[in-house]
Each structure stands twice: as structure tokens, then as C-alpha cells.
Design brief:
By secondary structure, the protein is α/β, with parallel strands linked by helices. Helix content is 49%, strand content 10%. It is built from six helices and four strands. Helix 1 packs antiparallel against helix 5 and helix 1 crosses helix 6.
């Protein structure tokens, strides 16, 4: 059964809320990815971009949420980090990464706000905009 935009939006909002409430460190590739998550008031974000993976492992205590992109570079980075962290006894959670892609169709984390608003403004009435009020950012109708 194919989900409509309204159902995907609900799932995406639930995932974003859970991610916001999760106190674990979130690892992202770059500044644009961090900004996209901060737009949804998600905290505890560390950039992978300027860190050596060894030093990064030292900063993480037990567990981290990995939110890398879905391009070739992001997939390679994900595998390397999971392997390195496993050797250091650090758990990596990629559940949110998968869910964000599943519900929004993004390929890069920096696309998150655009994909969210695309779903939001699609509405549920045969593609017509329902002009609802955005629960997450309070500034909808593509004014992000």
C-alpha cells in the first residue's frame, strides 16, 4: 500500500520529534546538515567534516546517532564510522537516518527542511495545498 503525502508527513514529524527528544550525540557530515537539523530544534550535533575519526571516537562515550548522507561519500563514511566505533566499543544508531530517508525521500541531510515543506505543502486533497499550520517550524508556506 502506497502512502500519501499526509501519511508520510505524519511519520516524518514523529521521527523528527523522537530525534529531537533523543539525548544522544548526532553526527552529521557538514554545516548545512547541522543547520537543517537545528531548524527542527535538534541538539547535540557534532560535525564529522573537520574531525579525524579517531578523535571523533574519543569524544563519543557509548553511543551516537549517525546521520550521514545517502550519496557514495556518505555511504562509505557510514561504513567506516560504524566499523571504527565498533572496534572502540561505541554503538552507532542509523535508525533515524533510514527513517528520514524513508519518509522524506532525501538524499542529503541538508535537504531535510525542503523535503519536509514539500510534503507539508502537498497536502492530502489530491495534491492541493491545505494551508495548514506547520507543527514543527511555525513558519510554513515555503517561507523557510
Amino acid at each position: 500500500m502506497k502512502m500519501n503525502a499526509e501519511e508520510k508527513l505524519e511519520k516524518l514529524e514523529k521521527t523528527l520529534t523522537e530525534l529531537r527528544e533523543d539525548s544522544r550525540i548526532k553526527l552529521v557530515e557538514g554545516k548545512k546538515d547541522r543547520r537543517a537539523l537545528e531548524f527542527f530544534d535538534i541538539k547535540d550535533i557534532i560535525l564529522i567534516q573537520n574531525s579525524s575519526l579517531g578523535r571523533l571516537a574519543e569524544r563519543i562515550k557509548k553511543e551516537a546517532i549517525l546521520l550521514t548522507d545517502f550519496d557514495r561519500r556518505g555511504r562509505i563514511m557510514t561504513k567506516r564510522i560504524i566499523e571504527l566505533f565498533k572496534n572502540e566499543g561505541i554503538n552507532t544508531d542509523i535508525t533515524y537516518r533510514r527513517e528520514l530517508k524513508k519518509w522524506s525521500g532525501l538524499t542529503k541531510m541538508e535537504e531535510l527542511t525542503a523535503k519536509y515543506h514539500e510534503l507539508f505543502n502537498r497536502g492530502d486533497d489530491n495534491g492541493k495545498n491545505l494551508y495548514r499550520h506547520c507543527k514543527i517550524c511555525n513558519i510554513c508556506q515555503h517561507r523557510y
